[in-house]
Design brief:
Rossmann fold, 6-stranded parallel β-sheet, single chain, alpha/beta, 7-stranded parallel β-sheet, 13 strands, 39% helix
Length: 366
Amino acid sequence: MAIKILHVCEYVRGGVTTYLNEILGYQAASAEISSVHVLLSAYNSDKLGIQGDHVHYYRYKRKLSYFIPAMIQIHRAIKLIQPDIIHVHSSFAGLFVRLNYFFKKKHPKIVYCAHGWSFLMEVSPMKKKLYGWLERGLARKTDWIINISEHEFHGAQEYRIPVEKSLVIPNGIEDRLYKKKDVALALDPAKLNLLFVGRFDRQKGIDILLRFFKNNPLPNVRLYTIGEHVLDSVQMEIPDNVTALGWIDHNQIDSYYEIFDAVIIPSRWEGFGLVAIEAMKNKKAVIASNRGDLPDLVKNGVNGYIFDLNHIDELTRILTTVTRQELNVMGQRGYTIFQKNYTSEKLNQRLMDVYLQLMRSSRVNA
């Protein structure tokens, strides 16, 4: 059964880049897939692990004036490629692909993953209702809806996304480590050295973390941050007990995870929490907020700790009582959880099962 797959994306950045790189190589090498194509915005997208004539770009920015031209370009590409299955990534790409088929009876099989539902983010109640209404309508032109976590699945049910079309396929990452070189960073062994990895924006809660360390100069703890500065300079004031390392290339990131005692994730919302499983892969305990899917990934007292973002004093208690030995034990447990649930092999096998089921059903209905 040779399947032609087209992945359609909006911007490809951060976690979506990681996700695509985990699945594209696998699918390109699969005997059951004849060809894999990717269509993404030429603006604000990372470079993918695969290149060549199967990677296609369209001209697009997230402005209303670009929406209709983007839909036209996407559907010209679909007509040219003629895929058996379109796998759509993110809300805007989901809109552009499915809206064009809304009044058409025939279309390729469509798999849709929001990579974090818009109505579960920190937006106004009016916008949440609007996003829910749009997603329910577009679900009519969708064969399978993939939720990246149980949290996303249950949240989608609150907005009446069709349960009969919905399934949970957690994100997964490759289990090999990316270590290009030893890290030239001298950490104080007398302190607990914590690492934050992520975008410096509101979602990731970096402002909360910096404010906490400014107001709570714990003598036994030091924070290091890896990420891009997107907040303004006032919000990004770095306290004396925090060291900003800048952005680190992904092919070196595991070298940094390796030398720290634990990873801290203060996110305001998370559809999944990719940094958490990157930490677990590196046998590091995770200290995370009680938002999104993080409490499902991090079991309190097992592979890390969960703290209430609305009661930040809980973080003081955790950091002043936990020992390095306890964190090491939790890191080992986290690695076991990662191996069982969150490898790229498991992600790819689950996706392949979805594709094959769709192709079998299309042949039965033909």
